[in-house]
Amino acid sequence: MVSVTARAPAKIIWFGEHFVVLGNPAIVSSINIYATVHITPLGAGGFVIESRNLGLKYDGEGDPGRLKPFIRVIEVFRGKGFFKPFHAIIDSKIPIGSGMGSSAATAVAFTAGLARFLGIDVSLDDISKIAFEAEKIVHGRPSGIDNTIATYGGFIYYEKGSFKKLKVRWPREYMLIVADTGIERSTKKAVEAVLSRYKRRMRIMERVYEAAREIVGEAMRALENGDMESLGELMNINHGLLVSIGVAIPETEAIVHNAIRYGALGAKITGAGMGGSVMILARREDINNIIRSIRKYVKKIYKVRPTSKGVRVLTK
Ligand code: PMV
Asked: Coil, strand, or helix at residue 144?
Protein backbone atom coordinates (compact mmCIF):
# COMPACT_ATOMS: atom_id res chain seq x y z
CA MET A 1 0.00 0.00 0.00
CA VAL A 2 1.20 3.50 -0.75
CA SER A 3 2.57 6.19 1.55
CA VAL A 4 1.49 9.76 1.04
CA THR A 5 3.14 13.08 1.81
CA ALA A 6 1.12 16.29 1.59
CA ARG A 7 2.22 19.82 2.25
CA ALA A 8 0.36 23.11 2.51
CA PRO A 9 1.71 26.66 2.82
CA ALA A 10 1.57 29.20 5.62
CA LYS A 11 -0.14 32.48 4.90
CA ILE A 12 -0.09 36.12 5.76
CA ILE A 13 -3.18 38.24 5.78
CA TRP A 14 -2.24 41.48 4.04
CA PHE A 15 -5.47 43.34 4.60
CA GLY A 16 -8.76 42.79 6.37
CA GLU A 17 -8.13 40.28 9.18
CA HIS A 18 -10.90 40.35 11.80
CA PHE A 19 -13.03 42.57 9.56
CA VAL A 20 -13.41 39.50 7.33
CA VAL A 21 -15.23 37.66 10.14
CA LEU A 22 -18.24 39.97 9.70
CA GLY A 23 -18.26 39.63 5.92
CA ASN A 24 -15.75 42.32 4.88
CA PRO A 25 -13.30 41.47 2.09
CA ALA A 26 -9.66 40.59 2.80
CA ILE A 27 -6.44 39.96 0.90
CA VAL A 28 -4.20 37.05 1.80
CA SER A 29 -1.21 35.31 0.26
CA SER A 30 0.60 32.04 0.77
CA ILE A 31 4.25 32.23 1.82
CA ASN A 32 7.19 29.82 1.59
CA ILE A 33 6.86 28.13 4.99
CA TYR A 34 5.10 24.76 5.01
CA ALA A 35 3.22 22.19 7.06
CA THR A 36 3.86 18.61 5.99
CA VAL A 37 1.88 15.47 6.77
CA HIS A 38 3.25 11.95 6.14
CA ILE A 39 0.74 9.12 6.07
CA THR A 40 1.76 5.46 6.03
CA PRO A 41 -0.27 2.25 6.33
CA LEU A 42 -0.67 0.83 9.84
CA GLY A 43 -0.40 -2.95 10.28
CA ALA A 44 -2.76 -3.06 13.24
CA GLY A 45 -6.27 -1.60 12.95
CA GLY A 46 -7.27 1.95 13.83
CA PHE A 47 -5.00 4.94 13.43
CA VAL A 48 -2.20 6.90 15.08
CA ILE A 49 -1.75 10.65 14.70
CA GLU A 50 1.48 12.23 15.85
CA SER A 51 2.22 15.92 15.93
CA ARG A 52 5.95 16.65 16.07
CA ASN A 53 5.27 20.30 16.86
CA LEU A 54 2.80 19.79 19.65
CA GLY A 55 4.67 16.75 20.96
CA LEU A 56 1.40 14.79 21.00
CA LYS A 57 0.42 11.30 19.90
CA TYR A 58 -3.12 9.98 19.75
CA ASP A 59 -4.31 6.49 18.91
CA GLY A 60 -8.05 6.93 19.16
CA GLU A 61 -8.28 6.25 22.92
CA GLY A 62 -9.49 9.01 25.29
CA ASP A 63 -9.42 12.74 24.68
CA PRO A 64 -7.55 13.84 21.54
CA GLY A 65 -6.97 17.33 23.03
CA ARG A 66 -5.31 19.62 20.49
CA LEU A 67 -5.42 16.89 17.86
CA LYS A 68 -9.22 17.06 17.76
CA PRO A 69 -9.41 18.96 14.43
CA PHE A 70 -7.75 15.99 12.69
CA ILE A 71 -10.27 13.62 14.26
CA ARG A 72 -12.98 15.77 12.70
CA VAL A 73 -11.44 15.17 9.26
CA ILE A 74 -11.33 11.41 9.88
CA GLU A 75 -15.02 11.52 10.91
CA VAL A 76 -15.96 13.28 7.68
CA PHE A 77 -14.29 10.57 5.57
CA ARG A 78 -15.65 7.78 7.78
CA GLY A 79 -19.13 9.29 7.40
CA LYS A 80 -18.75 8.79 3.64
CA GLY A 81 -17.71 5.17 4.17
CA PHE A 82 -13.93 5.56 3.76
CA PHE A 83 -11.35 4.27 6.19
CA LYS A 84 -8.08 2.31 6.20
CA PRO A 85 -5.69 1.98 9.15
CA PHE A 86 -2.99 4.64 8.99
CA HIS A 87 -0.18 6.37 10.84
CA ALA A 88 0.05 10.14 10.28
CA ILE A 89 2.98 12.33 11.26
CA ILE A 90 2.36 16.06 11.21
CA ASP A 91 5.52 18.07 10.88
CA SER A 92 5.07 21.81 10.47
CA LYS A 93 7.62 24.58 10.10
CA ILE A 94 4.86 27.13 10.69
CA PRO A 95 4.99 28.50 14.22
CA ILE A 96 1.84 27.76 16.21
CA GLY A 97 -0.40 30.64 17.29
CA SER A 98 1.66 33.14 15.34
CA GLY A 99 -0.94 34.32 12.84
CA MET A 100 0.62 32.42 9.94
CA GLY A 101 -2.18 29.91 9.63
CA SER A 102 -0.52 26.84 11.11
CA SER A 103 -3.79 25.16 12.07
CA ALA A 104 -5.33 25.63 8.62
CA ALA A 105 -2.19 24.51 6.79
CA THR A 106 -1.92 21.33 8.87
CA ALA A 107 -5.66 20.64 8.45
CA VAL A 108 -5.46 21.15 4.68
CA ALA A 109 -2.34 18.99 4.30
CA PHE A 110 -3.90 16.28 6.48
CA THR A 111 -7.19 16.35 4.55
CA ALA A 112 -5.52 16.22 1.14
CA GLY A 113 -3.05 13.54 2.27
CA LEU A 114 -5.65 11.33 3.92
CA ALA A 115 -8.01 11.60 0.93
CA ARG A 116 -5.22 10.39 -1.37
CA PHE A 117 -4.24 7.63 1.08
CA LEU A 118 -7.84 6.41 1.23
CA GLY A 119 -8.15 6.60 -2.55
CA ILE A 120 -10.87 9.24 -2.51
CA ASP A 121 -11.10 11.59 -5.45
CA VAL A 122 -11.49 15.05 -3.88
CA SER A 123 -11.47 18.48 -5.51
CA LEU A 124 -9.57 21.43 -4.05
CA ASP A 125 -12.93 22.81 -3.04
CA ASP A 126 -13.74 19.61 -1.08
CA ILE A 127 -10.33 19.79 0.66
CA SER A 128 -10.89 23.40 1.67
CA LYS A 129 -14.41 22.66 2.95
CA ILE A 130 -13.38 19.64 5.02
CA ALA A 131 -10.42 21.56 6.49
CA PHE A 132 -12.89 24.33 7.34
CA GLU A 133 -14.78 21.82 9.53
CA ALA A 134 -11.50 21.19 11.38
CA GLU A 135 -10.86 24.93 11.66
CA LYS A 136 -14.21 25.44 13.37
CA ILE A 137 -12.93 23.34 16.25
CA VAL A 138 -9.84 25.51 16.68
CA HIS A 139 -11.29 28.93 15.97
CA GLY A 140 -14.98 28.83 16.85
CA ARG A 141 -16.05 31.21 14.12
CA PRO A 142 -13.48 31.13 11.33
CA SER A 143 -14.06 33.25 8.25
CA GLY A 144 -12.74 30.48 5.99
CA ILE A 145 -9.86 32.58 4.67
CA ASP A 146 -7.12 30.41 6.20
CA ASN A 147 -8.26 27.06 4.75
CA THR A 148 -8.88 28.73 1.38
CA ILE A 149 -5.36 30.13 1.05
CA ALA A 150 -3.66 26.98 2.38
CA THR A 151 -5.58 25.01 -0.28
CA TYR A 152 -5.25 27.27 -3.32
CA GLY A 153 -2.11 29.36 -2.58
CA GLY A 154 -1.12 32.55 -4.42
CA PHE A 155 -2.66 35.94 -3.73
CA ILE A 156 -6.36 35.80 -2.98
CA TYR A 157 -9.14 38.34 -2.61
CA TYR A 158 -11.61 36.75 -0.21
CA GLU A 159 -15.15 37.77 0.62
CA LYS A 160 -17.91 35.78 2.31
CA GLY A 161 -16.70 32.35 1.33
CA SER A 162 -15.90 33.27 -2.29
CA PHE A 163 -12.53 34.23 -3.59
CA LYS A 164 -10.63 35.23 -6.67
CA LYS A 165 -6.95 34.93 -7.45
CA LEU A 166 -5.09 38.19 -7.94
CA LYS A 167 -2.33 38.81 -10.47
CA VAL A 168 0.36 40.59 -8.53
CA ARG A 169 3.40 42.48 -9.75
CA TRP A 170 6.25 42.19 -7.28
CA PRO A 171 9.21 44.47 -8.07
CA ARG A 172 12.47 42.71 -7.15
CA GLU A 173 13.82 45.41 -4.87
CA TYR A 174 11.17 44.80 -2.21
CA MET A 175 11.17 42.21 0.54
CA LEU A 176 8.88 40.88 3.20
CA ILE A 177 9.67 40.00 6.80
CA VAL A 178 7.41 38.29 9.29
CA ALA A 179 8.40 39.05 12.88
CA ASP A 180 6.96 36.53 15.32
CA THR A 181 6.59 37.94 18.84
CA GLY A 182 6.50 34.37 20.16
CA ILE A 183 3.47 35.37 22.20
CA GLU A 184 0.97 32.62 21.50
CA ARG A 185 -2.63 33.59 21.69
CA SER A 186 -5.93 32.03 20.85
CA THR A 187 -7.46 33.26 17.59
CA LYS A 188 -10.84 32.30 19.02
CA LYS A 189 -10.42 34.63 22.03
CA ALA A 190 -9.12 37.48 19.86
CA VAL A 191 -12.09 37.14 17.51
CA GLU A 192 -14.53 37.08 20.46
CA ALA A 193 -12.98 40.22 21.97
CA VAL A 194 -13.24 42.08 18.66
CA LEU A 195 -16.85 41.02 18.15
CA SER A 196 -17.79 42.15 21.63
CA ARG A 197 -16.23 45.57 21.06
CA TYR A 198 -18.14 45.71 17.78
CA LYS A 199 -21.42 45.06 19.59
CA ARG A 200 -20.68 47.62 22.30
CA ARG A 201 -19.60 50.38 19.91
CA MET A 202 -21.59 49.50 16.83
CA ARG A 203 -21.93 52.99 15.31
CA ILE A 204 -18.23 53.74 15.58
CA MET A 205 -17.18 50.26 14.55
CA GLU A 206 -19.34 50.32 11.42
CA ARG A 207 -17.18 53.21 10.22
CA VAL A 208 -13.97 51.41 11.09
CA TYR A 209 -15.17 48.37 9.12
CA GLU A 210 -16.11 50.61 6.21
CA ALA A 211 -12.58 52.06 6.17
CA ALA A 212 -11.15 48.54 6.23
CA ARG A 213 -13.25 47.70 3.15
CA GLU A 214 -11.94 50.79 1.29
CA ILE A 215 -8.36 49.77 2.09
CA VAL A 216 -8.86 46.36 0.47
CA GLY A 217 -10.15 47.97 -2.73
CA GLU A 218 -7.16 50.29 -3.00
CA ALA A 219 -4.71 47.58 -2.00
CA MET A 220 -5.89 45.37 -4.86
CA ARG A 221 -4.98 48.07 -7.33
CA ALA A 222 -1.61 48.68 -5.65
CA LEU A 223 -0.76 44.96 -5.76
CA GLU A 224 -1.78 44.60 -9.38
CA ASN A 225 0.31 47.64 -10.35
CA GLY A 226 3.31 46.76 -8.20
CA ASP A 227 2.87 50.08 -6.40
CA MET A 228 4.71 49.16 -3.22
CA GLU A 229 4.77 52.69 -1.74
CA SER A 230 0.96 52.77 -1.76
CA LEU A 231 0.81 49.21 -0.53
CA GLY A 232 2.99 50.10 2.46
CA GLU A 233 0.92 53.11 3.31
CA LEU A 234 -2.27 51.05 3.16
CA MET A 235 -0.68 48.46 5.46
CA ASN A 236 0.03 51.23 7.98
CA ILE A 237 -3.57 52.45 7.85
CA ASN A 238 -4.84 48.88 8.21
CA HIS A 239 -2.63 48.47 11.27
CA GLY A 240 -4.17 51.61 12.77
CA LEU A 241 -7.60 50.04 12.40
CA LEU A 242 -6.39 46.85 14.05
CA VAL A 243 -5.20 48.96 16.97
CA SER A 244 -8.65 50.55 17.16
CA ILE A 245 -10.40 47.18 17.41
CA GLY A 246 -8.12 46.23 20.29
CA VAL A 247 -5.76 43.52 19.02
CA ALA A 248 -2.43 45.33 19.41
CA ILE A 249 -0.08 44.65 22.32
CA PRO A 250 3.07 46.59 23.35
CA GLU A 251 5.38 44.14 21.55
CA THR A 252 3.57 44.40 18.20
CA GLU A 253 3.57 48.20 18.55
CA ALA A 254 7.28 48.34 19.29
CA ILE A 255 7.98 46.24 16.20
CA VAL A 256 5.71 48.32 13.95
CA HIS A 257 7.15 51.64 15.17
CA ASN A 258 10.79 50.59 14.90
CA ALA A 259 10.30 49.02 11.48
CA ILE A 260 8.79 52.24 10.14
CA ARG A 261 11.44 54.35 11.82
CA TYR A 262 14.19 52.33 10.12
CA GLY A 263 12.72 52.61 6.67
CA ALA A 264 9.92 50.05 6.25
CA LEU A 265 7.25 51.09 3.76
CA GLY A 266 4.59 49.34 5.77
CA ALA A 267 4.24 47.29 8.94
CA LYS A 268 1.16 45.73 10.44
CA ILE A 269 -0.13 42.93 12.60
CA THR A 270 -1.02 39.97 10.42
CA GLY A 271 -3.65 37.50 11.59
CA ALA A 272 -5.50 37.66 14.87
CA GLY A 273 -3.02 39.85 16.80
CA MET A 274 -2.88 40.04 20.64
CA GLY A 275 0.58 38.54 20.14
CA GLY A 276 1.35 36.62 17.00
CA SER A 277 3.20 38.27 14.14
CA VAL A 278 3.88 41.56 12.44
CA MET A 279 4.52 41.68 8.68
CA ILE A 280 6.91 44.25 7.27
CA LEU A 281 7.32 45.43 3.70
CA ALA A 282 10.66 47.10 2.95
CA ARG A 283 13.27 47.81 0.34
CA ARG A 284 16.03 45.22 0.26
CA GLU A 285 18.65 47.77 1.31
CA ASP A 286 16.77 48.62 4.53
CA ILE A 287 16.16 45.06 5.71
CA ASN A 288 19.24 44.66 7.92
CA ASN A 289 18.68 47.93 9.77
CA ILE A 290 15.06 47.03 10.33
CA ILE A 291 15.91 43.58 11.62
CA ARG A 292 18.47 45.06 14.03
CA SER A 293 15.90 47.55 15.34
CA ILE A 294 13.21 44.96 16.12
CA ARG A 295 15.35 42.05 17.28
CA LYS A 296 14.77 42.57 20.99
CA TYR A 297 10.99 42.38 20.62
CA VAL A 298 10.78 39.19 18.59
CA LYS A 299 11.26 35.50 19.08
CA LYS A 300 11.98 34.78 15.44
CA ILE A 301 12.27 36.70 12.21
CA TYR A 302 11.34 35.08 8.90
CA LYS A 303 12.38 36.48 5.53
CA VAL A 304 9.53 35.21 3.40
CA ARG A 305 8.20 35.51 -0.11
CA PRO A 306 4.71 35.14 -1.46
CA THR A 307 4.25 31.88 -3.37
CA SER A 308 1.87 30.80 -6.09
CA LYS A 309 1.04 27.22 -5.11
CA GLY A 310 -1.32 25.76 -2.53
CA VAL A 311 -1.55 22.21 -1.20
CA ARG A 312 0.49 19.47 -2.93
CA VAL A 313 0.26 15.71 -2.52
CA LEU A 314 3.00 13.21 -3.37
CA THR A 315 2.59 9.45 -3.42
CA LYS A 316 5.42 6.96 -2.89
O1 PMV B 1 -4.14 34.58 13.41
P2 PMV B 1 -4.69 33.62 12.46
O3 PMV B 1 -3.71 33.11 11.46
O4 PMV B 1 -5.45 32.53 13.12
O5 PMV B 1 -5.73 34.43 11.53
C6 PMV B 1 -6.99 34.73 11.97
C7 PMV B 1 -7.68 35.65 11.04
C8 PMV B 1 -8.94 36.26 11.62
O9 PMV B 1 -9.47 37.14 10.64
C10 PMV B 1 -8.65 37.03 12.89
C11 PMV B 1 -9.97 35.18 11.94
C12 PMV B 1 -10.58 34.53 10.72
O13 PMV B 1 -11.12 33.43 10.90
O14 PMV B 1 -10.58 35.10 9.62
From this structure: coil
C-alpha torsion sign, points 236, 170, 26, 111: negative
Residues counted in the chain = 316
Tell me the CA–centroid distance for residue 67 and ligand 1, in Å: 19
Question: What number of helices (H) and strands (E) belong to the chain?
Answer: 9, 12
Q: Is 247 in the pocket of ligand 1 (CB under 6 A)?
A: no
Active site residues: 146
CB of 16 closer than 6 A to ligand 1?
A: no
- Model pLDDT for residues 130-151, shown as the tens digit of each residue: 999 999 988 777 889 999 999 9
d(CA 166, CA 156): 6
Query: Helix, strand, coil proportions of the chain in percent (round to 5)?
Result: 45, 25, 30
Kind and range of the H or E run holding 117: helix 102-118
Q: What is the pTM of this model?
A: 0.92
pLDDT tens for 179-212 read 999 998 888 899 999 999 999 999 999 999 999 9
